[in-house]
Fold each of these.
Amino acid sequence: MNAPTSPAVSNPAGTADRAERITRIREAAYRIRRNALDMGEVQGQGYIGQALGVADVLAVVYTDQLRYRPEDPHWPDRDRFLLSIGHYAIALYAALAEAGTIPLEELETYGSDDSRLPMSAMASYTPGVEISGGSLGHGLPVATGMALGLRHQGNSARVFNLLSDGELDEGSTWEAAMACAHHGLDNVTAIVDVNALQADGPTAGVLRTEPVTDKWQAFGWHALRVDGNDVAALVDALDELRAHRGSPSVLICDTRIGRGVPLLETREKAHFMSVAEHEWQTARTQLEEGLAR
Amino acid sequence: MTSTTPRKKLTTSAMIASFADPGQRTTSAPFGHALNRLAEERPEIVGLSADLAKYTDMHVFRDAHPDRFFQMGMAEQSLLGAAAGMAEVGLVPFASTYSVFATRRAYDFLCLDIAEPNLNVNVVGGLPGLTTGYGPSHQATEDLAILRGCPNLTIVDPCDSVDIEQAVPALADAPGPTYLRLLRGAVPTVLDEYDYRFQLGKAAELRAGRDVVLISTGLMTMRALQAAARLEADSVDVAVLHVPTIKPLDTEAILRAARTDRLVVTLENHTVVGGLAESVASTLAFAGVGTRVVPIALPDEFLAAGALPTLHDRYGLSTDAVIAKVKAELGGGTHAPWAADPDPATA
C-alpha cells in the first residue's frame, strides 16, 4: 500500500522542528476556522461559536496526531476519531476538508438538502465521520467497544473521542469511563472541550461538572488539563498522552467560544449563536488579522 | 383444619424460575452452548454482558472462551454502545442482559449506535414477557412494542431450545442488528417432534386444522401445541402457525392462514399492545382482510409478583386458559370484543 497517510505517520511526532510544527498547526487551525465561517454563512447560523473554540484542538488532532489515509476512510489500521458531540459537525467537516478527506468545495453544501454534510454529524452520510453523534453520551461507550475490539484483534490503532463538558451530565459517559479504566484501555484518548456552556446556559449553573480533572482521575484515567486554544500546550499534552501506557487518557481543554474572531468572542455567550448577514465578512477579516499577529 | 397433608406452596421462585412443565423434556442453557459451537467456527464472534452472564446463559460462552468475553459491569448503555463499537471494527458481538434493561433502559443506544448504522450486533434479552414472578422491574411485558418501531432491527421470539439453537447461527449470519428473546436455564425441547427448521423471517405451520388457527410466537407456541392436542380430543381441529420472527413479519404466511372462516387466535407472551396480536391485525387490515382476531396476550397493565404457574393462569397464558378461551369463542356465538359497537357513520 502506498496510499498517502496523515502527518502522524509520514512525519512522526518529535522529528519535525517544534516551532515549524506549531506554525504549521496554527495555519491549519486558521483554515479550519475559515472553513467553518464559510459553512456558517451558508446556513446563516449554527454552532459557529463552538467550531471556532475547538478549531485548535481539531487542528492538532488532524494534522499532527491522528493516523489516517484521506483517500481511504475505512483503512482498518486508521486511528478512529469519534465526534460524540454531533452538533459540532460544522467543526469536524472543516477539519476533514483540511485533512483532505472531503473536498473543500463540498463545504458550501453544508446543511442543504441531499448534502453529505448534515447539520448533525452522521457516519452514514460523510466519509471520515466514524459515528452518528447528536444524542449525547454515546461516543465514549462506542469508543470503549472499538478500543476493546482493536486490542482483541492486535490492531494498534488508537481511538479518540471528542466530548463536551455538558456531555459529562450524561451517566453513560461515566459508565464508559469506568469500563475503559477497568479494561486498561490505553488506546483510548478522550478529549473534553470545556467551553463552560450548554444549551440552557453556563455549565456551572445548569449542572456543575467541576472539578473535571479530579473526576476523571478518580475514575482511573490519566488526566491532563490545558488551554485548548494554545497549540503548543495541546501538542505537548497529546505527545505525553501518546506515550502513556496502562490506563486510558483524557485531555481536558478549556476553550473559548468564538475564539479567533473578536466580534464573536465578545458576544453574549449562546449555545446556538446567530450571526447577521453583514457580519460574516467582518468575521473573516478579523480572523485573518489574528493569524497575521 | 383437620387434614395433616401439607399443601404444596407455590412461591415466586425468584429469578431462576423455569416455565417448563413438570417432567417436560428440557435442554440446559441452549443459547450458551449454541454460541460456543458458533464461536468455534467463527473467530469474530464475541460475547458481552452487563453483570448478568450467569443469568443469561452467557457464562457457558465466558467459561469456554474467556478471551472473547467482555464484562461491562451493570451498565447497559455502555454494554450496547460498546457492542456497537466492536461491530464497527469487524467483530460480531452477542450482548446479553435482561430484556427490561436492553429495551427500557438502553433503548437510545440500541437504536442509534446499533440499529441506525445497521451493525451486526445481536442483543440477547433474558426474562422476556412474563417469565419471572419478580414483578414489573424484571418482567419485559412490552419489549416487542418498544422494539417493533425500530428500523433495521430483526426481532426473534423463540419457542424452545430447538429454536434457540438454530436461531443463534442465523442471527449471526444476518448482516444487521437482531434482538433475541432469550429463554434460559432448563429450556423445554418441543419442536424436534415436528418437521421444523428455524428460518429467519419465516413462519411455520406445525399442524393443520379445520376449525381454529392459532398464530403464536415464543413460548406460547408450546402452549398452542398442547392446547391443540387436547382440543383434538374434544373433536376440535386446530392448526398452529408458529411465528418466531416478529420482525420482519412473514405477512404472506399470516395472510394465508387468516384468509379463512376458521377462528383466528393469536398467542404471545407479551402485552396485547404492540406485539403479535396487533402485528397480525394490522397485516390483515392493511390487506383488506376483515377476519376477526382473538388475542391471547398479557393485559395492558403492570403485572403481579408471584409464582409463574399462578401468574400464567391468572393472565391467560396457561394451556388451560388457552383452551378455555378457544372453547368460549367457539361456543359463545355472541362475542363482544368491544364494549361499544357504534352504528356506522352515515354521510
Note: The two ends of chain A are 42 Å apart (CA to CA).
Amino acid sequence: MAKKRVMFSPVTRLEGLLSVEVTLDGDRVVNANASSTTFRGFEWIMRDRHVTDAVYMTQRICGICSTAHGAVASYLLDELYDNTLSENAQLMRNIMYASDIIQNHIRHFYLFGLPDYVRMPQRPPFHGQNLSDARLNPKDDQRLLENYFEAIKVSQKSHEILALFGGKAPHQHSFVHGGVSVAPTADKINRALALAKTVREFVKGKLVPDTELIARAYSDYYQIGVTEGQFLSFGLFRFGPKNERLLLKNGVQKGNRLIPLDIGLINEDITNSWFSTAFEQGSKGKELIPNPYKPGAYTWSKSVTYGGQHYEVGPLARMIINGKHRGGASTMDRIYARTLETVHFTQLMEDWLKRLKPGPAPIEQKKTPVKNKVVATTDAMRGALLHSAWIEDEQVVRYNIITPSVWNFSPKDEYGRLGPTEGALVGTVVPRQEMLFNVLGRIIRSFDPCLQCATHVLDMRGNVKKERLI
Amino acid sequence: MDKEKFNELCHDLAPRSDHTLTEAILKEVSSFQAGEQNKRLPVIWIETSDSGDNNIAFLNSTYPYAGQVFTDMIDLLYCNSFMTAQGKHALNILEQAAVMLKGQFTLVVEGAIPLKDNGLYNIIIRTENRNITALEAVNWLGNLAKYVVAMGTCASFGGVSSAKPNITGSVAVRQVLNREIINVSGCPVNPDWFVGTLAHLLMYGRPELDELGRPTLFYGYTVHRHCQRRSYFDKGDFAENLGDIECMFSQGCMGPRTGADCPYRQWINYVNWPVRANTPCIGCTNEDFPDGSTPFFTPISEKGSNKDKETNKWRKRE
C-alpha cells in the first residue's frame, strides 16, 4: 500500500501553535514531524538589558509556566549577586511555584486533555468533537463535563494563592532575586490555607477518580505512545540559603539506573530546525540566525540531546526519578504521573504554608555581581528548564534558555534519531481512519505541549557544552 | 407573537386531541429562547505571536468564570486553546464560521503579527499544501469581522514580541488592518478588562475608546492617580528596596504614566497587584512596553526610552 502523508493541524487544546505531519503506511504511523510554528527570538530580546530585568522579562516567554521562568531567573540572579535566602523566602517561593504547577496540571487535564476521552456537548467551544471511540457511559460523561467547569474555578483558586503572595498571575512580581517582596502575615497564610484546602479537595475528590476512570476505560493507552523510557530532570523546589538543596532530586534515568546529572553533556542540534549559522558583523563569534526558508527544516524547536541521546522530561520523569511511580513510558503513564504529582504538590503546599512564620518581607538583594557567567536550572511544569547568562557590567551579553518542550518536541537530529514525541508517535497503529486525530491528539497532549516555550531556544553556537555554555 | 395571538392560538387548537397545539407552541417557544433572551456574542479567537498568558489570564476571570463566559456570554467558534475540534475539523469550522457569520462575529487576536519573511515566524495552521500565517489570517478574518479586539499588549501595540531588536518584524494588529481595533492591552490582560470589553460589545455595542483605542472604562486614569501609596509619593517618602511599604517610584514604578485601574480593581479575584506586592508597576498596558519600561527597577527619568526625553514629563500626563 502506498504511504500517505497527513497534516494534523492545528493541534488544538495546548499552549502555543503546533502542527504534526505524519506518514502512514497502511494503518501504521511510520514517520512524524512535529512543527513548532512560532518564533519570537527571546534570546535576542534579552540582550543589552539590565540582567535584573530577567525575572519579569523571561516570564513573558510563557503564560502557563511563567513562575518557572521567574524562578530559574531568580536562582540565576541569586548566584550572580551571591544572595542569601531565608527559610521563609524559600517556603514562599515554593508555595507560589507549587500553586502555579497545580494550576497548570488541573487545566491541562480538564481543559486540554478531557475532550480526548469524554463526550462533550455539541455547542461552542466543544462543537466538532468527532470522538470516534468514546468509551464512558453517558452518566460518567456528564459528571466529568461538570468537573470540567469546576476545574476552571478551582484552577483559578490555585492562581489566587500565587497572586496573594505574588501580586498577580500569570507573571507574578514578588518572587525575585534575593527572596520574596511580600510579607507572610497571618491573614494571608490563613487565606492561602483555605484556598489550598479547596484545591486539595478537588484534586483528591475529582481529579484522582477522574484520572483513574479514564485510565481504566482507555487502558490500551498504557501500550500506546511509548517513548524509549529515558528520563531526565533538573530537580524541583529549591531550599537552603544558596538554593543548594533540591526537594525533588535531579538526575538521568536509563532503565533501572539513575545517573547523576552533568549539564555539560547537553547538546543542541539545528539539522531540521529553521536556523542557519553565520558570522554576523560586529557579533561575538558565530551566530545562529533564523531561516524560515531552510530546505528540509520543519520546526522552530531545536533538537536537544544529553550525552548524544534524546530524553523525555516532565512529571513522569520526575515521579520515576524520585521513585514515586513505577510503570512504563506511555501516554497513560504520563497522564497518571501528572495527577500523582498534583496530589503530592497540594500536600506539600499546605505543609509549607503551615511552616511559614509571620514576619517582614523575606528579601535582601545584593547590589554587586560576584560573577559574570552563570547557569541555573529547575524543573518546570513540563520538565527540565535551563537559563544561562553572560553579563558585562550588569548588562546581558548573551542569555540562553532551554525549555522542557524542546526536549520533548525535539525534531530529528543530525543522525535522524527521533525525539520523545515523534518517537512516541512512530509505530502507532490507527485501527480506523476516522480515529487518526483522536489517537495522535491523545499521544501528543500527554506531553502537555507548550510551544510558546519551545520557540525560544537559542544560543549563539548551537550547543551548550560546558565551556561554551554562555 | 403577541399575547393576544398566542391566546387565540391556544383557544383554537386546545380542543384537538392530537399534538397540533404542542407543535405550534413549541415552535414559538424555541424561537423566543433563541432570540434576544439568549443572545451570545459569536467570537473567533486566534492566537498569534505571544506567550499564551492572555488565555491563561482569561481563565482567571471570576463572576463570570470562564466556564460561564463560554456558556452564557459568547459562542466561541474557533480558539486554538479551548476548542474541542482539532486538525482539519477545526480548520473547517473556522472557514465556515468566517463565511456564515461574516459581518457578525468578533475577532479576538491574541498576539503580535510578524511581518518579516512574509510572516513565516508565526504559522497558525498548516495544510498539506500551504501555511496560513498569522499575517494572512488577520488580514482575512479582520476584514470580515464586526469588531476586532486586540487582546493583550502584543496584539495591541507589539509588546514583548516586538521588543528590540525585533528580529521577526512583529507589529500590532492596528498596523496590519486598516480599520478600528479595540485594544485591550496588558501583559497579561486583566480578565475583567477583556471579559468586560466583550460584555460591552454584547450588551451595549462599541465602548468608548481612548486615543490608543482602549476602552476608557479600564484605561482612562493612570495607576498613579488611584495608587494606595499616593500619599507616600506626595510626601516624598520613597521605598529603598523591593519589599518596602513606601512609594515604589524610586524602584522604577511606571504608575505615573500607565493607564490602568489596577490599584482599585486588582488581580485574581481582586486580591493583589504589583505595588501592593511591594514591587513597581512595570507599565505593561503601555504602547512602549517593555522597552519604555526597562530597566524595570530604574526610576522613570533614567529608563532606556526616556533618557533623551524631558524628565518629569509624566507629571503633565497625570
Note: Residues 186-217 of chain A form the longest helix (32 residues).
Amino acid sequence: MTDARVPASVPAPAARALRIGIDVGGTNTDAVLMDGRTVLAGVKRSTTADVTSGIGVAIQALREQSAFDNDDVRAVMIGTTHFVNALVQARDLAPTAVVRLGLPASAALPPLTDWPDSLVTAIDARVYLAHGGHEFDGRPISPLDPDELRAQAADMRAAGVRSVAIASIFSPLNAELEAAAAEILRAELPEHVTFSLSHEIGRLGILERENATVINAALRELGAEVIEGLATTVRGLGITAPIYLSQNDGTLMDEEFVRRYPVATFASGPTNSMRGAAETTGLATCAVVDVGGTTADIGLIEGGFPREAAASVAVAGVRTNFRMPDVISIGIGGGSLVNSETAEVGPESVGFRLTEKALVFGGDVLTATDIAVAGGRAQLGDPARVAHLDPAFVARVLARIDERIAEAIDRMRTSPEPIPVVAVGGGAVLLDHTLPLLGEIIRPENAGVANAIGASISQVGAEIDTVESIVPGSRDTVLAALKERAIAEAVAAGADPATVTILDVDEIPIPYLPGGATRVRIKAVGDLEGVSA
Amino acid sequence: MSWQLTKADLPDLARGAAFLGTGGGGDPYIGHKLVENALGEGSITILDPEDLADDLFVIPVALMGAPTVMIEKLLAGHEPLTALRHLEAHYGRTADATMPIECGGVNSLIPLLVAAQTGLPVVDADGMGRAFPELSMETFAVYGVNASPIALTAERGEHIILDTGADNRRIEQLARALTVELGGSAAIAEYAMTGADVRRTAVPRTISMALSIGRAIREARAEHRSPFEAIAAALAPTLYSHVRELFVGKVVDVERRTEGGFARGRARLAPADAADTGAFEILFQNENLVAYRDGELVAIVPDLICVVDQETAEPITTEGLRYGQRVRVLGVSTPALMRTPEALDTFGPVAFGLTETFVPVEELAH
C-alpha cells in the first residue's frame, strides 16, 4: 500500500487504530504490529546492550513487513524483563542502603534477612536500624533520631551509596516517618541519590515490603536510563503515541511511573508471555513455558489469566509480597552457557550477546543454542561451526534440558491431571517436540513473539487506595461506590467502559480507630479505548 | 523418646504449624527465621511427654496479640526469654524445659527460639492442639493448670507479672489490655507446670505432628503425589485421624473487621466457574471457626478448618485470603481431650458466641 496508488480526489481511508507490542527479553527483542486481534507483522531481533536501539531496529523491521502511518499507532506497549534480569544476574544495580525505622523493636530480624549473599554483595548493601516506626494504633514506637540518621548518612556517603530504601514499621498506615527520614538523609547526601519509600511499594508485612523497596531502590538508576532511552528511540522514529510499560498484573504504566517504580515491571515478562500464549492458542487452561535467552519461565494459565501466587513470592531468592503470577524460573535459555565437561546448562548466559558469542554465530562460547543447532532442533547461524561436537554429548545436553524443563512444569502443576503444555519464546527451539512425563508440546502460531502479543493486549487500570468508614450494614454500599469510582478512573485512564472489570478488592481494617476505619484498595482494569483487541 | 531438631527441620515444621494454625496463629515464617538465626548449626532437644519426670518444671512461652502486628513490628529478640526469666524469678525456680502453649502458627516456634538461645529442651506437646485466639482456650486450663501467674514483656524489656488465681478468663482480659498498650503484641510465659501435669493436661506430640504434616506436603510435591493424600496419610496414625475435603473453589469475597483485638470476618467461596455468589462460607476470629456449605454446617470449632492452596496444599491464613484465590478447604478431627464437655465449654462453639452445637467433622462431612 503506497500513497501513489490513491488518487488525490479519493478521501483517505479511515485512520486505523494500531498498536505496537514489544517484548524485550535478555536475548531477543520481539515486536508485533497489531490491528485489533490481527497480527499485521511480527519480528524478532537481538536485544542490544542499550536495550533501546534493539527496539528501534524491531520497529523498523515491523514497518518493512507491513507499512503503517505513524499517526495510526495509538500506543506503544513494551514489556521488559530487563529489570528482573538485572536483579537475577546481579548487574547494573546501584549501591543501595536500607534504613529500617523501628528500634528498639525488630532488631532480631534485620533488613535483608534471608537474602542470598551474592545479591547483598551486588548491591553493596548498607543496612541500618534506626529509631522510629509506629505502633499499630499510630503511637510512635520511638521518635526519629536525626543525629542517628545523619551519622548513618555519613556512612552511606563514605560507602558511595547511590540509592536509599526506607521502611518504617507500620508505614502503610502512617507514612510520615519515612518521608521525614528521607528529608533528613537527603540533606546529607549527594543530589543524585534516589529514595524509595516502602509505603509506596508494598503492603503490611515489613520484611517483604522492605525487600521489595530495596530491590526497587537498587533498580532506580537503571529505570531512569531505560525509560529515557525508550522515549528517545520511539520519538526518533516519528511515533508520537504514548509509551507504556507492562506491569506485573498485565496492566500498563506510563513513563514517570517506571522511573519511580521499576520493580513493578518485574513479572511482566511471564505475564505477557502467558497471556500471549493463551491468546494465540485459544487454550483457556494450559502450562506455558517461555524460554528466553537466560531463563525458562514456567507458569499456569487458568481461564485466560496467569495463576496468581498464593502468598509471598520469591524473586531472585528474595521474599516479597506483591501480587504476582505464580511463575518459576530456571536458568535455561538460548544463551545459557553449556559446561563441556558436565553437560550442565546455565544459569550463566551470554544473554543479548548470543549473536556474537555463540559458536554458530562465529563466537567462541558454547551455548544451549549451539547444542540445539548441533542436535538438529534449530536452524540458526552456521551449523558447520558446531559439526565438531560429539553427538553423544549433544544428546546428553538436550536430554538434560528436556528433563529439567519437564521437571519444572511437573513441579508447577502438582496435580496429576494432564495439562497441555505451550512453549513460546525465542529459546523454545531448545525443546524437543515432546517432553518426558508431559507429552506433546504445542507451539502456537507466532509462538516466537507471544510475549509481544501479550504486551499488546495489555490493559489499563486504576487503583483506589483510601480509608473509609465501614460500619455494620454499610459495607456493600461503601464497596459498591468505591468499585464504581475505580471503574470511572480506569475509564478516565483510557479504558473502554465495556471492558472494565474489578480485578482486586483488598480491605485492611485499621484497629482501634472509631467508626470501623478500613483501608480499602480496589483495582479496576479494562482494554485501552479505541485500540482494544 | 527424645529427639533432636535441627535447622533442616524448620521449613517443614513451619509449614505444618501453619496448617495447624487453621487460618490463624500468625505466619510461622517469622518464627522460623528467628529460630534459624539463633540456632545456627546447633540442635534442640525435643522431649516426648511420656518420658518426663513427674516433677520436671516446665514453663511454656508464646507471643500474644495480633498476627498483623507480629509481621510488621518484629521482635527485638530477647522478649520470650525475658518473659521466661521473669516467671522463673517469680517462682524462685529454674525451668527444666519449655513448651508451646499453641502448636498452630508462629507460637509453635517461640519455645524453640528460647531453646536455641539457652539450650533448654522443649516438650513435644501443647495446650491448644491447634491455634485459638485466647490464652484461656487451653487444655491446660480445662484440666486444672492455671494460666496465673503470667509474665508479659515487649521490646523495651518492661515486664509485668499478673496473677488472677484460678480465673483464666480474667487473666486473658487483663493480659490482652496490656498487650494493646505494649503495641499489640507481647511475649508471655505462663501455665508453669510439672511433668505430671503435662501428661494429664497437654495435647501430646503436636510438634512432631506439625513436622510430619510439613514433611508430607513437601515430599508429595517433590514426588508429584497428591499433597492432600499425603496430609491424610500423615495424620492417620495421630490423634487427628479424620481428614475431610470440605470444598474446592475460589475466594469470591472476604470481609474483615477488628473487634476487641481480634480479626473477625467471613470469607465466601464459590465453585471456580460460577458467578460471584458464595456457596461456601467460613467465619473466622483470627482462626477459622465454622464452615457452611449451602447453609449446612460442615465443620465447627474446635475441629480444624484448614484453607490451603488448591494445588500445592500451601496453608493460607485468614489474613492471606484474597479475592480470586483457588483454594481447597480441609476439615480435620481433633483428639478426644479437646472434645469433652468441659473442653467444649472453654473453646467450643459456645465460647465464640456460635449458636450451633459441636458435631465432630467426621459425622458432618462424608
Note: The CA atoms of residues 16 and 283 of chain A lie 29 Å apart.
Amino acid sequence: MRAETEKEKEQEKEQEQEKDTVTVHGGTPAPPDPAPVVEAPDSAATAGADRPHRRRAAVVVAVVALLTAAPLVLSPYPVSAMTRMLAFAVLVIGVDLLTGVTGLPSLGQAAYFGVGAYTAVLVGVHITPDAMVQALAGLVMGLVAAAVTGWVAVRARGIVFLMLTLAIGESVHQVADTWSAVGGSNGLAGMPPVTLFGGPALLAAGFVYWWVLVVAALVFAAVALVVRSPYGRTLRGIRDNEARMRALGYRPALARYGVFCLAGAVAGVGGALWAQQARFFSPGDMGFEVAALALLSVVIGGAGSLWGPCLGAALVLFVRDNLSASIGGHGPLVLGAVFVAVVFLMPRGLAGLTGGRLRELAGARRRKENSS
Amino acid sequence: MTPLLELRGLTRSYGSLTAVDGVDLTIPRGERHALIGPNGAGKSTLFATVAGTLRASGGSVLLSGQDITSLPEADRARRGMVRTYQHSSLFLDCSVLDNVALAVQRVHRVAHRFDRAARRFRHTEAEARRHLDSAGLSGRTGDKVSALSHGERRQLEVAMVLATEPSLVMFDEPTAGMSAAETERFVALMERLPEDLTVLIVEHDLDVVFRLADRVTVLHLGRVLASGPPAAIRTDEAVQRAYLGSARTEDLFAEAEAGIEAEAEAEAGTEAEAGTEAGTGGPR
C-alpha cells in the first residue's frame, strides 16, 4: 500500500519531468521566430532560467501535496512507516551535506542522530512533551556533540576522515550501549506522546506524521538554502579543489568544521523526530548499520542533489523494514544489488536520471542559441 | 618607494641539494617581470617558495616591505599575492561562474554567509560576471568547467586570479601546452591587464617573455645569472652561454649536431656547470 504511494510519488515526479523534457523539446523549434534572433544572449538566459524555476515550483507543490494528503488515504501502519522514512531522510540530508556537497564521506552521523534522539526522549520523559522543544533540544545537542568531536575529524580528508567518523560513531554507540542513565542496551522507553502548542497529545499516527513532515520540509529548505548560498559554493569549492581554495586565500579547515557542526545539528533533529515517532530509542537505532544505510541512501540518491538522497532514504528504509519481511529477510541482499546497480548504471544516482540529463539538454540548447 | 616584492637571499634546499640559492630580487609596483632559465634552474622551486606553497630554508620574502616569509599560502593570498598553476587548477564540477565567484566572495567577505541564495548577493555576482566578460568567457558562465577547452581554462584562471583583486599575480608557465592561436589570445589578455598590477611570470616560450616583460631575470643553477630589460638580456654573454644559444637547448635533442657539441666542449666552465645541473633537474 505504502509502496504504491512511494511509486506514485516517483511516477508523479517522472511525469513532471517528462512534461518538462517535452517543453524543452517543444521550445527548440522556436528560434525561427523573429524575436530570438534579436534577443541578446542575456535575455535568452534569463528566459531559460525562468522556465525551470516555474517547473520546479510545480514539482515541489505536487510532491508536498501528495505527502500531505498521504495520511488521509493510508492506514496508520504505512503512515508511521513514512514518518520513519521522513525522519531518516533528515539524517540523510545531513550526510549528503557532508558527503555530496563538501566531499567528506562520513560514517559518524548516526552518533549525532542518536544524541538528538536520546535528548528528545529525555526531554519528553523528564521535562515537557512539547514536540518543538524536543526537536530544538535535539538540534542543539546534535550541534554541540558535533562541535566537540568534529574538530578531530575535520583535520583529515577522504579515507582517514571516513575512519575517524566511524570511530566517533562507534564510540558514541558504545557509550549509549553501556551508560545506565540512558538505559544501556535496553534503550530508553516511556516517552509520552508529543504535544504541539500546549494542545492535546498527538496520538494518531497521522498527526505525528504531519509534524515530522513539516520539520523535515523545514530542514530540507534550510539545507537547500545553505547549498545555494555563498557558503554552499565555498563547500563545493573545497570538495573540488582544496589546494586551490587556499591559493585563493580561503581557510578551508574553518568551513569544513562549520559544515560538520551543521550536519550534526541536522542529524540531531532527525534523531529527535525518529524518537518522537517511535517514543522509544535504543543503541540499535544509532549503530554502524544506520550510518552505513544513510551513506548508502546518499549514494543511491545521488550525492550532491538533495531530493535524490531523500528518495534514496525512503527506498533504503522500505527495503529494510517492509520488503525484507516478505522476501525471507533478504533485504540487505536487495540493498547490495541496488547499490551495485546504481554504481555501474547510474553514477549520479537517482538524481542523475532526470535532473542531470535535463540540465544537459537545456545547456546544449542554450549554447546553440548563443552561437546562432 | 618600497618595492612590491623583494626577495632577500631566498634559499630552498631539498636535503643537500640547494635548488634555490640565495636569490635577491626586487620587483617594483606595476612591473611585468619574467623569470626564465634552463630546465632545472630552480624556477618552479623559487616560484613555489615565493607563493608559500613551499617553505623557505633561508632568506626572506617581503611584500610591500612586510616580511611574509612565515605566512602560509592562504594568508599571502589575502594580502594580494596570488598564483596560477602550471596545470590548470580549477573547480571542475562547478560552473564557470562559480569558479570566479569563489574568488570574488572571499574578497567581499561573504564566503561563509548562508542567509540568502548566492545569486541574491548581486554585487558579488555582477563582479564575477564582469571578470568573466573581460576574460572573454561571458558566453560560458553556466557551463561546467570540465566542458571547457584547455585555452578557455587558462582564460578562466586569469579571470579567477584577477577576481581576488591582487597586487601581485604570479603565472607559472601559463602558455604551456597551448596552441599558437590560444597563446596569441592569452598574450593579448595579458597585455590588457591593468597597469598597476605587478606580474611575475615563469615562462618557457621566449617570444612571449620578450613581448610581455619589462624586465627579465635569468636563473641558472638556483642563482640569478642576470637581471635587466629584455634587450640587455638578449645580448648578455653569460645568458647566451648558459641558455639562449649554447648547447643547453640542443641537449634536449638526442641528435644534436656534432659541431655544436664540439663548441660546447670547448667551453669548459659551462660544461662543468652542466654536470651539476643534471643533478638539479631531479627533484623538480
Note: The radius of gyration of chain A is 22 Å.
